[in-house]
Amino acid sequence: MAGYTLAPTEAVVATARFRLGNIRFWMHWTLTLTTNRLLMTTPGTLFAIIPMGIQQTSYPLQNLTDVRFTQTYSVWSGILGGFLALVTIGFFEGAAKPGALGVGLFLGFLGLLWTVTCFFNIIQPRIVVANNRGAGINGMVAVWDRQAVRGFLEKLSTAVSGYSVKVHMDPAFAQFAQAAPAPPVAPSVSGVLVDLANLRDSGHITPEDYEMKKRDILSRL
Fold it and tell me: How far is CA 35 from CA 16, 60, 128, in A?
């Protein structure tokens, strides 16, 4: 796991690599789940299309409060794609006329590429991970990566939900988790006198013994 140094007790649980949306499929970003953190590696870009360097972010698991997979739909991409489709048809029809220049054919293929791109961008699957400060991850993935996303987020959700339990069960916190034994309860004086009276009435001790022990107990108060 290049770029990250794990703690001595930290281990990698799962790693997943996703395409950066439906359009920029040649670029990827990576999420790595460890026993303590969620690590994100995203590509730096030039003009949003040329990979250039990487950016790395770390999120402690105990700070994560929300893990979701969402899928939104871009209406504007659909409208623009429909408009470009009509324009592209016009370009191809013009290129098919006798004596037409090759420019129309070139523009037709270029318009077709833009049209397909817009239609691809209508469906926008996203990974959403938020921490207790409201920050986090809101990253788009490709449509064909949805199954991998769900599998990774299931592991992440399990790790986040069980993290507080793991912390409280850590040996360093064991003294707080284990209840201290209750101190022995001393018998009350009135209870002892009642027991003595029962022994006297049942004939186990004489009235003289009862009076003597009673005086002895009362003298200790």
Answer: 15, 9, 20
Q: Which run of H or of E encompasses 15?
A: strand 12-20
User: What's the rounded mean pLDDT across residues 13-39?
Assistant: 90
What is the three-class DSSP state of 154? Answer: helix
Q: Are 125 and 70 in contact (CB under 8 A)?
A: yes
Expressed in angstroms, the distance from the first to the final Cα of the chain is: 73
Please state the separation of Cα 81 from the chain's center in Å: 35
CA distance 112 to 94: 14
d(CA 219, CA 50): 95
**Per-residue model confidence as pLDDT tens digits over 96-123:** 887 766 788 888 899 998 898 889 889 9
pTM value > 0.90: no
- Closest Cα partner for 177 from 189, 186, 187, 165? 165
Q: Taking Cα atoms as reference points, which of 121, 118, 112, 113 lies closest to residue 89?
A: 112
Q: How many Å apart are CA 55 and CA 45, to the nearest integer?
A: 10
Question: Which residues on adjacent β-strands are paired with residue 5?
Answer: none
